[in-house]
Amino acid sequence: MNNSRRALLCSTAAAAATAFFGVSGRVLASMEDVDKMIAEFGGGAVVEEAGPLQLTTPEIAENGNSVPVSFVVDSPMTDDEYVVSVMIMASDNPSPDVATFHFTPASGLAKASTRMRLARTQDVVAVAKTNSGQLFKVSNNVKVTIGGCGG
Amino acid sequence: MAGKKPRVKIPKSVAAGDIITIKTLISHKMESGQRKDKEGNAIPRDIINHFEAAYNGQVVFSVDIDPAVSANPYIEFATRIDEAGTFTMKWTDDAGEVTEHTQDVSLKG
């Protein structure tokens, strides 16, 4: 009895989550889409892993509606050497793009934070582009437990 | 959309050359365009798609925002302050409506 009640609760919560994101019966984004976006973003330049880019996301996000994400790129941020933009993507959302941040040398520090929506457990990818065209990529896995029923 | 009053937090006293962190928050439902109403009709997308911060008229930071950013978008960023001046921040939504916020920064001493 108790079990079925729990199961019902879970399926209701999952249905609510599905309704919110509208993902049922729809093809979600994939890592291929992410790679395509990176190629567009970087103009086909070689992507280095990590490097000076640090991406901070929670390991487990209880609420996929508001997942904190922040990053910082170690860069002198001078006129000669600075970070132009950083793109954040979520590989398994209905659409992978989350936000693209644009910096100038006057930013002083290439860092930013925001909060994003995640439809389910997935990889969050950040790519930083410097003024010389270098690309750095970091990918973090975030476990999303929408409705508290496990992801 | 009425009542979009942004909240912006900038350190009160700043020394020349400091890199300060600015926190912004604005009320907006950020309707993703992926949801459906009870009748199964798609709810049209309505989000803030661009944020821009300028200091003394020069753009120092901007963000292109996609529907995956949470409702009531929170944005935190940094700026190096070399002289006293004024921040102008602009949030633009899908309808083209711009919410603007200005705030002065004065230097220590």
Description:
The complex is a heterodimer of chains A (151) and B (109). Chain A is built from two helices and nine strands, in the order ααβββββββββ. Chain A has helices at 2-21, 31-42; strands at 47-49, 53-56, 60-61, 67-73, 83-90, 97-103, 110-116, 122-130, 135-144. In chain A, β5 and β6 (97-103) form a beta hairpin. Residues 147-151 of chain A have low confidence and may be disordered. Chain B is mainly β. Chain B has no helices and seven strands. Chain B has strands at 7-9, 18-25, 48-55, 58-65, 74-81, 85-93, 98-105. Chain B is elongated. β6 of chain A pairs antiparallel with β4 of chain B, so a sheet runs across the interface.
Please tell me how large the radius of gyration of chain B is: 16 Å
The 3D shape of chain B can be described as: elongated
**Uncertain spans of chain A, ≥5 residues at pLDDT below 50?**
147-151
Summed over residues and divided by their number, the pLDDT of chain B gives a mean of 91
Tell me the number of helical segments of chain B per DSSP (H or I, 4 or more residues long): 0
- The residue fraction in helices of chain B comes out at under 10%
Q: From the structure provided, what is the oligomeric state, counting identical versus distinct chains?
A: heterodimer
Supply the number of helical segments of chain A.
2
Q: If you average the pLDDT of chain A, what whole number results?
A: 82
TL;DR of this structure?
In chain A, 21% of the residues lie in helices and 38% in strands.
Q: What characteristics describe this protein?
A:
heterodimer, A: 151 residues, alpha+beta, six-stranded mixed beta sheet, three-stranded antiparallel beta sheet, 38% strand, globular, disordered C terminus, B: 109 residues, mainly beta, four-stranded antiparallel beta sheet, 7 strands, 0% helix, elongated
Q: Any chance you could write out the topology, listing elements then pairs?
A:
The complex is a heterodimer of chains A (151) and B (109).
Chain A: H1 2-21, H2 31-42, E1 47-49, E2 53-56, E3 60-61, E4 67-73, E5 83-90, E6 97-103, E7 110-116, E8 122-130, E9 135-144
Parallel strand pairs in A: 1-9, 3-9
Antiparallel strand pairs in A: 2-4, 4-7, 5-6, 5-8, 8-9
Chain B: E1 7-9, E2 18-25, E3 48-55, E4 58-65, E5 74-81, E6 85-93, E7 98-105
